[in-house]
């Protein structure tokens, strides 16, 4: 059964933290007019057949024949409604992935979409596009960063058509700037071959990797900072502290923290909030957190402290650990990107869009 194959490769790739974390990434399979797509808020690592939403491909295709308003909120609301209307009977209580329309563009039977840190070392690098061209040529299609949802799907729709006209074949590997990779193939085996060949070529160019072993940190300061954070966030808060060598390096000064200050990809915005708080000395947490809250309208989830490392803070164990896991991923990306001209975060405009995007706030609540 096609759904068994879909569940199988979703769990397989979704369980590898080098490839995707938390609720990130998504997969799909096509069978005639039916497309099975990962439900929003599910996780690839443990998704079951029930986690997929059955959609009508022909109804999704109608979305690309329509014209939507330029206004972000109106466009996203209307295209989301059309997407929800493309669900098949019996799927009413499910919500398809935010990337469903994009999956529908590939004619291939299976689509695998992941956010591997190593691949994002290229997609989030200053010279990423040039490197992708150099390493893969026409085998890989590069899509510049843009607003997710309808805008991204529409750009991909046009770009995939152009690619097909030029290369007389369908694109099957797509790199999305500041986001991740899409792979399409008629067989499950083919997905893996393509993914690993892309990753092997990138790996061969990487000069440095992040060190997540415990670094030399100031234990007394770390404990006092831990207490300060718990006091500021209240007794319901859960703090995850990791004095990793790489986090200590980034926490060294304003210059080093600037390399990971702005988010590289949407997942980071969803699970870590867009920016960390950076503190050099004891006694500064309360002021810095309040300034952050005033500027952004929400609390931070990541606090970097010089000579201590990274603290994740949230109101559940899972939320706190996930924030640290996603920020560790960001540090990996920043280090990998050094091999491709240095890191290039998302634009402020794109970050603000994602912060306010209803689809992502739905995902983060799941
Ligand atoms: Zn994605």
3D architecture notes:
The protein has 16 helices and 11 strands. Strand 6 and strand 7 form a beta hairpin. It is of the alpha+beta class and 366 residues long. The longest helix is centred in the C-terminal third of the chain and has 21 residues, at 317-337. The radius of gyration is 21 Å and the shape is globular. The protein has helices at 2-14, 57-63, 72-85, 100-104, 117-123, 128-136, 150-167, 188-203, 219-233, 245-250, 254-261, 266-272, 285-296, 317-337, 348-356, 358-365; strands at 26-31, 34-38, 52-56, 110-114, 141-143, 173-176, 180-185, 238-242, 277-279, 302-305, 309-314. Helix content is 48%, strand content 14%. The protein folds into 2 domains: 2-203, 3-Layer(aba) Sandwich (L-fuculose-1-phosphate Aldolase); 219-365, L-fuculose-1-phosphate Aldolase (3-Layer(aba) Sandwich). Helix 5 (117-123) packs across helix 14 (317-337). Strands 3-2-1-4-7-6-5 form a 7-stranded mixed beta sheet, with helices on both faces. Zinc ion binds next to loops.
The N- to C-terminal Cα distance equals 28 Å
Ligands, deduplicated: zinc ion
Structural class: alpha+beta
Query: How does CATH name the architecture of the largest domain?
Result: 3-Layer(aba) Sandwich
Shape descriptor reads globular
Helix content: 40-55%
Number of domains: 2
- CATH class descriptor of the largest domain: Alpha Beta
Low-confidence stretches: none
What Rg, in angstroms, do the CA atoms define?
21 Å
Helix and strand sequence = HEEEHHHEHHEHEEHHEHHHEHEEHHH
Question: What would the CATH topology of the largest domain be?
Answer: L-fuculose-1-phosphate Aldolase
The tally of strands reads 11
- Strand fraction band? 5-15%
Count of individual helical segments: 16
Average pLDDT: 94
CATH superfamily grouping of the largest domain: Class II aldolase/adducin N-terminal domain
Order of neighbouring strands in the sheet with most strands? 3-2-1-4-7-6-5
Sheet with the most strands?
7 strands, mixed
């Amino acid at each position: 059964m096609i759904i068994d194959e879909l569940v199988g490769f979703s769990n397989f790739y979704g369980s590898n933290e080098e490839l995707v974390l938390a609720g990130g990434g998504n997969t799909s399979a096509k069978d005639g007019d039916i497309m099975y797509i990962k439900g929003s808020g599910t996780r690839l690592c443990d998704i079951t057949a029930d986690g997929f939403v059955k959609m009508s491909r022909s109804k999704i295709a109608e979305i690309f024949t329509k014209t939507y308003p330029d206004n972000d909120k109106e466009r996203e609301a209307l295209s989301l409604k059309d997407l929800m209307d493309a669900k098949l009977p019996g799927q009413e209580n499910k919500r398809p992935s935010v990337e469903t329309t994009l999956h529908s563009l590939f004619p291939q039977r299976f689509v695998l979409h992941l956010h591997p840190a190593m691949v994002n070392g290229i997609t989030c690098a200053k010279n990423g596009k040039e490197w992708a061209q150099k390493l893969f040529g026409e085998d890989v299609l590069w899509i510049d960063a843009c607003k997710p949802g309808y805008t991204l799907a529409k750009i991909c729709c046009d770009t995939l058509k152009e690619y097909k006209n030029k290369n007389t074949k369908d694109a099957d590997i797509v790199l999305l700037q500041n986001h991740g990779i899409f792979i399409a193939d008629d067989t499950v085996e083919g997905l893996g071959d393509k993914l690993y060949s892309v990753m092997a070529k990138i790996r061969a160019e990487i000069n440095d990797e992040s060190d997540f072993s415990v670094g030399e940190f100031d234990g007394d300061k770390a404990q006092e900072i831990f207490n300060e954070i718990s006091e500021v966030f209240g007794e319901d808060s859960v703090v995850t502290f990791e004095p990793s060598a790489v986090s200590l390096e980034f926490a060294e000064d304003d210059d080093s923290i600037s390399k990971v200050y702005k988010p590289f990809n949407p997942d980071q915005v969803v699970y870590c909030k867009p920016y960390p708080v950076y503190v050099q000395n004891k006694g500064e947490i309360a002021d810095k957190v309040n300034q952050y809250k005033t500027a952004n309208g929400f609390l931070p989830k990541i606090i970097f402290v010089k000579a201590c490392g990274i603290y994740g803070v949230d109101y559940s164990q899972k939320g706190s650990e996930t924030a640290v896991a996603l920020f560790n991923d960001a540090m990996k990306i920043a280090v990998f990107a050094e091999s491709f001209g240095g890191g290039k975060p998302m634009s402020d405009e794109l970050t603000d869009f994602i912060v306010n995007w209803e689809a992502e706030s739905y995902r983060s609540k799941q």
